[in-house]
User: Fold these one by one.
Assistant:
Number 1:
Amino acid sequence: MEFAKVAIRRRINELFNDYERGERPALRRADALFPADSVAWRVNGDIVTMMIGGVSGLLLQMLHPAVLAGVWDHSDFRADMHGRLRRTAKFIAVTTYDHAPSGQAAIDKVRSIHDRLSGTTADGTPYRVSDPALLAWVHVTETTSFLDAWVRYGQPGMSMADQDAYLAEMARIGRALGADPVPTDRASAEALIQSMRPQLKADARTREVAALVMRQKVGGLAEDRAAELIMAAGADLLPDWARRMHGLPPASPITRAGARTMQRTLDWVYTGSPNRRVWPEDVLAWPTGAPR
């Protein structure tokens, strides 16, 4: 059984890390930006719920015309949507768990890229990717989606105090990226989302991006079946109004049951993995010879 767990972890790690370019999974470190007992460590460390939340968050973000235009104009999403999702996952892992300077460097890199990008929406309205209000929309949709996926599939009984604590902790990343305002609890997060709804729309571009997200292929048959389940669960996680805007049907009970089973299975697979160990400050890279 241990051999099987290591083999599955190896395949998953390969999907999320470009080994040919020297990437390795982020180690959980004692000197990370967040402490080991933070709620962010608990929520952000579950592969299945983070992927489901990532899909849901991306579908929400794309409903804002300026955010959609930024992706449309400055991203290779058509050729490499999997790469975009993988880079988002990598950013969350590094800023949550890795050596604090590595986390800060990842934030600085993203911010420097944002500062250089601008354009116009489909109706000619100018935008800047570094606009604090746009970054606030991206941040709130991403963090609440991660949290909603965790509550649905990882910890259904999660207290509201812990949910508020997660958003307060993740606000640190949002502020560092230049977002404003940055919600620090469920109430302020929901208020921000509701305040942005009049600006949202769905059009041909939105549908094209959503279709690319929903039909992702990532590898072999097993991986593609898992991806289909994650995409369906991510769409199902959307608020009803957002799902209607996208024209996406609610998931069946079979989808939710399948996603729950996948979450529990991979949680078992990663039990005993180096990914779950908290490494000391003097370990700066994936230890040579350590199993994946």
Number 2:
Amino acid sequence: MARIARLTYYPVKSCAGIDVPSAEVTPAGLAHDRVFQVITPDSDVLTQRPHPVMATVRPRVLGDRLALSAPGREDVVFVIRRDGPRRPVSMAAWDGEGVRQDPRADEWFSDLLGRPAELIGVAPGHDRVTGGDTPGTAALADGHALLVASESSLDSLNERIAAGQGEPVPMDRFRPNVVIAGWAEPHREDEARELTAGTAKFGYAEKCVRCTVPMIDQETGAKAGPEPIRTLATYRRGPSGGVVFGMKAAVLRPGQVAVGDEVIVHSWAGPSPSTAAAEPPFTATASRPAESV
């Protein structure tokens, strides 16, 4: 039986996630997932790709407050602004705006990153349409409401890494929202088209093309490549040429989910061609940005 093994939401895009035993599923994904984002004064999005230290930031949603902590730094806690001064933001073919948060958060992130930075949150009336096979919406994630991965996919990857004398990687390198256990075959998530868990229902959008973020140690914020991208490149390539791991999904029906909930797939696609073992070599630099930071 397939079941949910792990649920994680990431309050601030590109910062650490919070594992929870249960979660509300909103139209935009798990509650509180990527509802804040760090940008430059020119509205460019800041992520782990150029700033891997962001992985060490531990955000916590405390009711109407947000707390930020990182090793060697004093915590900052402030009241979340649901509305107020706006800042434009652009990502993944979407142009919108966010609400400026507390200046103390701006100062905290600027000091951490060594450059001017501002923290914004989802604005009232946030209206964003995501594409793929199943359209939906999302908060401030790169592309879609949910990233789904399976334990069997990671086990298969780590077996290949070990065969090449490399060190296995943990699931947090891929920053999924939902981890599924119980599928014997790896990458079954690629083939699921409609699935339910708890009282929520999800629809397949597309495979997740990975960037360099999986090569960052999510505990230390240190670059730890070339794995897992090097090994993924030998057998997991998408139509665009990038390496893929995990499935991006839209929310078809909001609801509640919990670790241990059975995952029921109502419709499947055919076998995924990306699971074929014989693939030509590929370098990580050719991949387009991932949609899971």
Number 3:
Amino acid sequence: MSSEERPLAQHWVATAPGGPDSWEFVEERLAAPGHGEVTIRVHASGVNPADAKHVASGGSGLEFPVPIGYEVSGVLSAVGPDTRIGSGAAVIGDEVIAFRVRGGYATAVTVPAEKVFAKPSTLTHPEAANLLLVGTTAAEMLAVTGAAPGETVLLHGASGAVGVSVLQQARLRGIRVIGTASTDRFDEVRRFGGEPVRYGPGLADRVREVSAGPVAAALDAVGTDEAVDVSLELVPDRRRIVTIAALGRAEAEGIQAIAGSMPASARFRDEVRSELIALAQNGDLVVPVARTFPLDEARQAHRVLATGHPGGKLALIP
């Protein structure tokens, strides 16, 4: 296929370090899939803080321009020769999701087939496009702290996207979760099986009152000093405290930190994808979506995300 025959696709790129306001929405010819690759016509792109953080500082050996977006849901529009996707055989027209890809903020994208899986039929495209980044993060938080059935754990940021996934996965395993949230989000925490407590001064005492016993582990999805300090106060074993946001405190205090850029985290998250997709297909794992935006309004979506209280996941729709 000549370059003139390849379809055009619009997508967001960062041309230099900086925030979303510096990104550019461009149109380019789409690369045809080779062996081990597929092309996805995107129906929804998941919006995550990591999408912006990845390119904001320009570190980690990035070479600009950098395509934006890690997670999509859509339909296969082309399949490379002798190629199977991560979940098995696939044909043009199949609904799929892709995770840990580059350039997901797009109308179409060509990606490694191993990162592509059959879309759970129980989820809409905006929901499916937001399943795996938060889901694998939540699964890893529970795994590295060794949270076990019958134990009580403390979750900071229980009503956020990662927190909601933690609540659902913990409930399925018989793990009791006390979750911090603002009072107007208590019903959301209860909806997914958590016991809410208000964050702020006096948090440790409120957790003790609700727990009425030992707190075995703490999972920090917010990164505040309060979250770390209260975790240290309530959990005797620092190896059973994990954060996804307070990396500096983790190093200083000897608690665990995880991130998708860390090799061990990347391996775990790749291994757990199929399990989470199966949970979603069975109706055991849902993804609350607060709002969708047209693809060309990616900057506005990130402004809403930056408020810290979108009330659910956000998605971009081409």
